[in-house]
Amino acid sequence: MLSVRPVFVPDASFFVEEVETMPAIITSRRNELVREYLHLASSAQYRRERGRIPLEGARLCADAAESGLKPLFLFFTEEAEEKYSRYLATVRSFSPKEFSVSPSVSQALADTKSTQGVFCICEKPAESPHLPSTESGRQILVLENIQDPANLGAVLRTAEAVGISGVVLAGNCCDAFSPKALRAGMGAAFRLPVYLREDAVDAIKRLNGSGFRTFAAVPDSAAVPVTEIDFSLPAAVVVGNEGNGLTEEAKDACSARITIPMAGRAESLNAAASAAILMWEMMRGRGAKGNGGV
Question: Do both 115 and 54 map to the same domain?
């Protein structure tokens, strides 16, 4: 096999010459595109620098292409080409460079135990420099310091399903485009507006200033039940970290504190479950007049 020396330059010409000279079948785990894929899979910073994301799974790769992400490189095993031809045809219609990979290379690329043997590298969706406005979205979710990619993916999947206008990832949140988050979200991050902010308090204050009412979700019986809130006006519900909840600073920055009424002995729900209930109530109450004073 032809071997090449890696050339790490952060521009669109990266790997152009190397890719042109690569064989159609990749059998070495030391192949430069294999190493690029693995680097993207392991580093959120590298994904941001490169503007690329790695995807695993026939449906997820096809979904990305259909959602408007540009596929750059497609990888598949011989078995996968036969089994998932319909999904591969969708990705191929966007003319990516494609390579057949050996089973051993497929296992090296895989982040799952039972891989389908289909992978691709796509362009990463552009990040919005601005927070959502009341014109672009009336019901949004803000997440502070969410650490579990599976939780984040589940929240984004629910947000897209119920019709939330966008999700703000604030503070030290994990990456919505990590392999685990993308799988858990079933590609929701491809279609749902996702906004990144380093400071949750600043994001909340900006949302307050732009016309949103911001609600801190807390496990506190003294807070207003979410079922009593009027969500017909622009609103942002803020959900905190899986173990510690919202920071005190984030709670204080919000317009009000709300809670999910709990009938059983459990004191709280995990972040994904809480967010799902809160988002359902937000969307259910869009046209209802509840506690308008809150």
Answer: yes
- pLDDT tens column, 44-89: 999 999 999 999 999 999 999 999 999 999 999 999 999 999 999 9
Helix 271-284 crosses helix 149-162 at what angle (to 10 degrees)?
10
pTM for the full model? 0.86
Q: Domain range for residue 27?
A: 16-123
Instruction: State how many domains the chain has.
Output: 2
Instruction: Check whether residue 95 and residue 153 sit in a common domain.
Output: no
Does residue 8 sit within a domain?
Answer: no
**What's the CATH number where 27 sits?**
3.30.1330.30
